């Protein structure tokens, strides 16, 4: 009988175990599915909040205005130049002295607005980026953003070639930040064509965004996770996403369009035959194909628990009951009925309680006090119900918190709405005003209670009402924004106020409201009127000025054409660009010379280095050249050239004035020949006198030597005296040659002070042991000379040596340099005996000297005067007997700027 009673009991226990295992599995599966649905809803709520705020940012006028201004800078440029422009600004962005501070060229007002927005949401957002149509950064809430976002996946998807679409990225790891982030991006549309002109990117924190998933805990190992339909884990609180993958068989079970639960053969966490709940994350808006990783990938929430933990209490109960049945076999003889009732009833109560909890009655508790595994299993169910209840209460608390945040956000939006720079009026589909901001009261003077409920169209002047009505109908039919138009609006006093009007559609559930933005343009209209009046007055002045310029041009042309000299201009290539009619005297027509080289008119001996130097230095110059007429006749011409400069001071050509001095030169030559005849007599007498003296001494020495009566010492003395006499004759002949040759100087740019320093170095010996001191008074920043350096050194050396020789005993020689208008001056002053007034006019005559016999040739000053005059300069002398003499050399200064690229 015991065996007969034991068999039904054993069979009953097995059946009860299987039924309870199935009931527990169904209950846990439904619970896991519900948890997965709630987790998916929270994720969708978090992401859509980011999308909603990004779309709201894209419609804010101050941000859209900054993007439109940035796009205007690309107008009229080809793609290559646009990319170069973006790289240039990227360099300026990245080269900032401090990456924690924005560069100076950003829009500060718009950036401050964006930073304030970010500060309010800093716990959830990492950064907010605003770009233009080229992907270039326009605004950022942080200066550490990259400037060129054109290659970023979020920008390509959101901008979409100007069509625009909403983009939500996959979870990616940012190495710079050290954690995962999520990009939410929306396009910024223009007012007219509804084309994307830029994009807004809100960068979300993963930890804050998916915090609710981490809070889902079931027992010791049960948890929720997020993955995508490609099998990639995104969030797992137990294992890092890169440490495990979801197998293909499990993905086929859970990648379904509806939430459900299944028994997974392998739950990818080491569990076999695990109960898993899943639910797809659904977004109420269409996302870009590239979203969530692209390729049609979707997100799933996934809830699992190790089956060993799930069924541990029931399995323990089975083993203990089985062992207990064997152990108490004999006791079953006496207490079979009692034990059966004690085991079956708690299990039935456990089944009933599990079913109630599975139906959502989370406050139900299993009151089983058997003191065995059934009681532990009941306690486990009670703990699971408590966990579900706390989780539900947490969700309700989260909803309350989100509701509070939403209310605070609405209050912030109200502040932004009231503080907007434009008057903003919200109009319902029936045309009635439902809200206004405070800005309109400052402009139109209406209190809010006088506008709310009133028809908006009644504020518009009648002539503008049809156009405004048509625009409002477009917005109500789905147009996001209408073009900006100018209208006139009645203020409270009934005066028409000129304003710009923008209409934007705002969807609120099934209804579409119209946001009207009114911008006061009274001052702009007044400025436009003033500008028109100024433009008309300016046009009259321009016409008067044009007439005056024409008259002046005609007057100047008459002056040039009737001038007695040939006036011409040359370009950089030394070709004629203009020549007046006076050139016809030489047989040329001025039309034939335009474009012809200037050098083609010169004789061959005037095409050399001097002309090349004169044209290259870019300074005013005057020199003589020989031109050849059309008939082949050579003519002497005095040419004065000066550089022509543009408005920026660059040399663009040469202006020349050529005066025919052939007849004058012929007369001068005749006078010169007469003067030469007179000078020959003086020169011959001077040469005879100067050479005769040393020759007489030499002849006397030779006579005494020939007698043979002199001692050896006396002979050596006579030979030395003869050598000195010959050297004096040699010096006279050399200076005579210098005086007679009068060769042209080799001109080159020369520094005045450098010449003075070299001469003083060479003549330093003359000061030694004489008691004569030397003082330098050299001016700084002197202009250079166009001179023959060696000739000027010869002149200065003569003057310095003369000054030293003019001082008897102690004295002082002073050498000065300076400028006098267009001249460079060199002064040599001594404190010597001075020159008598009757001698002063003769000091430059050949062979005239005030020195003693054998001390001078009388050619030094004459040669020096010739050198200075060939340089276009002058020598002046001031002297007072007993006080000293001052010689002043004046040489023309040159302009250091030269004609670029001239080669004559």
Task: Give an account of the 3D structure.
- The N and C termini lie far apart (140 Å).
- Helix 1 (2-58) packs parallel to helix 11 and helix 11 (329-358) runs parallel beside helix 12.
- This protein folds into six domains: 2-21 and 314-395, no CATH class; 59-209, 2-Layer Sandwich (Beta-Lactamase); 211-310, PAS domain (Beta-Lactamase); 420-520, Beta-Lactamase (2-Layer Sandwich), CATH 3.30.450.20; 563-660, 2-Layer Sandwich (Beta-Lactamase), CATH 3.30.450; 743-904, Histidine kinase-like ATPase, C-terminal domain (Heat Shock Protein 90), CATH 3.30.565.
- The strands form six sheets. Strands 1, 2, 3, 4, 5 and 6 form a six-stranded antiparallel beta sheet that branches. Strands 7, 8, 9, 10, 11 and 12 form a six-stranded antiparallel beta sheet that branches.
- A hairpin with a 6-residue loop joins strand 5 and strand 6.
- Helices cover 45% and strands 22% of the residues.
- It is built from 24 helices and 29 strands.
- The relative contact order is 0.05.
- The longest helix has 57 residues, at 2-58.
- The chain is of the alpha+beta class and 904 residues long.
| Oligomeric grouping of the chains | single chain
How far do the termini sit from each other?
Answer: 140 Å
Form type: elongated
Low-confidence stretches: 896-904
Give me the Rg, rounded. Answer: 55 Å
Kindly state the percentage of residues in helix. 40-55%
What is the CATH architecture annotation of the largest domain? 2-Layer Sandwich
Compute the number of helices. Answer: 24
Q: What is the residue-mean pLDDT, rounded to a whole number?
A: 80
CATH homologous superfamily title of the largest domain: Histidine kinase-like ATPase, C-terminal domain
How much of the sequence is in beta strands? 15-25%
Compute the number of strand runs.
Answer: 29
Q: How does the major sheet shape up?
A: 6 strands, antiparallel
Any idea how many domains? 6
What structural category characterises the helix and strand content? alpha+beta
CATH-assigned fold name of the largest domain: Heat Shock Protein 90
CATH class of the largest domain: Alpha Beta
